[in-house]
Amino acid sequence: MPDIAALYTNHYDETEVYRQVSALLDALHVPDDVKPGMKVVLKLNLLTGRAPEYCVTTHPSVVRAVALYLREHGITDITAADSPGGPFTVEALTNIYKACRMLPLEEEGLLKLNRDVSWKTVSCPEGFTVKSFNRISVIADADYVINLAKMKTHGMVRFTCGIKNLFGTIPGLQKPEMHYRYPNLKEFSHMLVELARSAHPAVTLVDAIDAMEGDGPHGGTVRHVGLLLASRDIFTLDYVAAQVAGIDPLSVGMIADAVENGLVKEKEISYPLDTPKPLEVPFTLPKATDILFLSRFPAFLRKPVQKVASVLFHPVPKLDPSKCVGCGRCAESCPRHLITVSGGKAHFTRKDCISCFCCQEMCPMKAIGVKRLLG
Q: How many structural domains is the chain composed of?
């Protein structure tokens, strides 16, 4: 029976968040797991270097609360880690830690911020489609992983929470390579599910006090939800989180894949604390996930309409040159190397674009939007 521990809270006050996080982790019996001497890693969402108020990354108050809780239970070897988009280098990590206001947590002595940029190949269980994943070493070597996700909409996968957060265990620019290997959304979603199954975090805790809607995971707008969620069952947790956001869980490829494979136990959920409710006004979805309304056409026309629509309405990145500063982050993140930078501006090639929107995720200036031939 999956326990979904949920508590409503309206702000990031450190004392209040610590009280809430402690109650969540107590409800999941985390003290029964942890033992002195264990290497515990907090897997954050540090997509890019943005201040906490933009809701792109896990809020430092949540990270601080989890670290304090672990220390109170005898854990001293605590590392916060992620492999954000872009190069996986010590310099890049340090800049992101600073922008996301994680450095004070290290200065307080609460935890270490990972600066090990090595990685290891980890084999998957027999029967998986993906035979192995390359993971950052700090995650591969951990005794216990707590997955600290951020609730956001997402231009490619529609909704990102606990499952998608584990994509950050893949090192640096190897993430665009995964987009290249799995350009089909269904295949990519299945890969994410297998990644989550093989990574198997002990607990996933979702920061949804302030979340992001619209053109997430980087360029959306702040949406106050006022909720913290936690569970040992990452798949059922994401299912519930999507419902809270007013999004049909089965419209999210990776959640649908998890349901299809019997990983979501929605009929067995127990809520030991608050029972989360769907928002009265659902999250605004990213433009890249608009549906085609094929059900409005007669059955014999749906396939040809879908074929035409896949060309006419296929979403691709669109650059706003007035915002572009020519930093090249989009070019280095493109798995098919379709973007060049010249004359101080990025230049896109539409042909062969797989619409992974890695470029949009990594643009620090919000200069990349979404365009179709029609629509």
A: 2
Structure-block tokens of residue 164: 């998608």
Domain residues for the domain of 294 are: 290-371
Put simply, whether the predicted model's pTM sits higher than 0.90 gets the answer: no
Q: Is position 275 within any domain?
A: no
Burial of 128 (0-12, 13-18, 19+ CB in 10 A): middle
Q: Which residue has the tokens 């056409």?
A: 297
- Residue 284, domain member (yes or no): no
Q: Can you spell out the DSSP letters for 237-260?
A: HHHHHHHHTT--GGGSHHHHHHHH
Q: For the residues of 19-76, what is the DSSP string, one character each?
A: HHHHHHHHHTTGGGT--TT-EEEEE----SS--GGG-SS--HHHHHHHHHHHHHTT--
Residue partners of 72: CB distance under 8 A and separation at least 6: none
- At residue 363, what is the residue type? C
Quick check: 301 pLDDT over 80? Answer: no
The residues, ordered by sequence, that sit 6+ positions from 291 with a Cβ below 8 Å of its Cβ are none
Is the bond preceding 249 in cis, omega lying within 30 degrees of 0?
A: no
Cα distances (angstroms) measured from residue 32 to each of 74, 100, 334: 12, 31, 44
Predicted pLDDT at 306 = 62
- How many angstroms separate the CA atoms of 26 and 22, rounded? 6
pLDDT score, position 165: 98
Ordered DSSP codes for 261-286: TT---GGG-B-SS------SSPPPPP
Asked if residue 340 has pLDDT above 80, the reply is yes
